[in-house]
Amino acid sequence: MLIEKYVAALDDPSLPPTEFHWAGPNSIQIRTTASPRAGSFGYGFLPSGWHAKVGSRAIDLRRDGLGLILLRPDCSGLCEIQLDYDGGWELRLCRYISFASIGVTSQLCFLRRRPA
Description:
Order of helices and strands: HEEEEEEEEH
Distance between the termini: 71 Å
């Protein structure tokens, strides 16, 4: 039932058009004529990764019933929302492990090449 409501909202011609644009590898700009009510955004919700703001004001992100991002921009009229993804602690941990692995591997290769 929930998915039918979501699809019906996507197909509703009375809702304002929305422009979506990647502003970088981890940044999205959304421009719409918004009302104070909430809107869903078709990306998976990760509590520690996504951050959103309208102007300089941070806005709260939540998980909707489908596990997607739920935005509450609390603006009327033209609204520009900036979404940024920093990966959260999980991505940073994986990045540190990768850098450490590269360092250890290069050291091992260097030590093996030295004549005994």
